[in-house]
Specification:
By secondary structure, this protein is an alpha+beta fold. Helices cover 51% and strands 12% of the residues. It contains two helices and two strands. The chain has a two-stranded antiparallel ribbon with strand order 1-2.
């Protein structure tokens, strides 16, 4: 059998818009999570890491965003940095 590939500029535009929307939603949720850090269950690095991974997977952007957790030496505070 033959396989025929068809490229659609409209499909590419829709995919790009969907990716941008997912990334924007992930940034909003990461900002909300960042406000909860160092309180309650988000005092430990492993719990924060699980929450960040879950958030990135739920928005399907785990391959698109790279997050690092920074622990400041002075007060033991943890920050999320997205690159």
């Amino acid at each position: 059998y033959r396989l025929i590939w068809i490229r659609s500029s409209r499909k590419a535009e829709l995919d790009k818009a969907a990716r941008e929307y997912s990334i924007e939603k992930a940034f909003i949720d990461l900002r909300d999570l960042s406000a909860k850090l160092n309180r309650g269950k988000f005092k430990r690095k492993n719990m924060i890491r699980k929450a960040v991974n879950s958030l990135l997977q739920s928005h399907n952007v785990k391959e698109l965003l790279f997050c690092t957790l920074n622990c400041l030496k002075k007060g033991g505070f943890i920050q999320i940095k997205v690159t």
